[in-house]
Amino acid sequence: MTRQTLPLDDSLYEYLLANSLREHPELAALREATRTHPRASMQIAPEQGQLMALLVKLLGARRTIEIGVFTGYSALAVALALPDDGRILACDISDEYTRVAREYWQRAGVAHKIELVLAPAAQTLAARIAAGEAGTYDFAFIDADKTGYDGYYEQCLQLLRAGGLIAIDNVLRGGAVARPADSDDTRALQALNAKLHRDERIDLALVPIADGLTLARKR
């Protein structure tokens, strides 16, 4: 028994993956293709992708949002978990990075589930709210510019139905949030974490998986 989350050394982490991870072949291939990318650290951990896929299935989700696509691993994990009529609104600004994503979505047979919009996410979400889509989404994943997180959170909260779930990545920022802020990104995450802790519009769990994942269920 322990009162605190176990630290994961390399051997325990490998054990976790060996005894838990059920990775679709195209997810594994995409992870390998991204491994040598100059910004490979932007990709989520595979166990996090698997957790998100399980959450999407538990929600019975059909309409989801992703803010920050990179090379597409998280969107692919969610798309594979969605039913055939499920859809992801995927928001990014990089054609270069998402070109890789589109290739693997196609290879996995889920490209028809993903609407990729290359524009500032705040603009895309505002347009969906203006179009009357508030309260119609089941799940949102935020993994983009940290100083934009608060705004994305507020927009996603509008777009989600009651009982819908927002997942927010990198909320521990390698432990930096527990120290005096050394950057605008860290300050933004500290402020958001404190805000969500007090936010009565949601049920909350901050999970120490990968770089920290906040789960916020809209009440």
Provide a count of the helices.
8
Give the topology string: H per helix, E per strand.
HHHEHEHEHEHEHEE
The biggest sheet, with number of strands, parallel, antiparallel or mixed sense and barrel status, is: 7 strands, mixed
The low-confidence parts are: none
Order of strands, main sheet, comes to: 3-2-1-4-5-7-6
The computed structural class is: alpha/beta
Principal-axis shape: globular
Determine the N-to-C terminus distance: 32 Å
The Cα radius of gyration reads 17 Å
Helix content: 40-55%
The chain-level mean pLDDT equals 97
Using DSSP, what is the number of strands? 7
Strand content: 15-25%
Describe the structure.
The protein is an alpha/beta fold and 219 residues long. Helices cover 42% and strands 20% of the residues. It is built from eight helices and seven strands; from the N terminus they run H-H-H-E-H-E-H-E-H-E-H-E-H-E-E. The chain has helices spanning 10-20, 25-34, 46-59, 73-81, 95-107, 121-130, 149-159, 184-198; strands at residues 63-67, 87-92, 114-118, 137-142, 160-169, 202-207, 213-218. A seven-stranded mixed β-sheet has the order 3-2-1-4-5-7-6, sandwiched between helices. Helix 2 runs antiparallel to helix 5 (95-107), helix 3 packs parallel to helix 4 (73-81) and helix 6 runs parallel beside helix 7 (149-159). The protein is globular, with a radius of gyration of 17 Å.
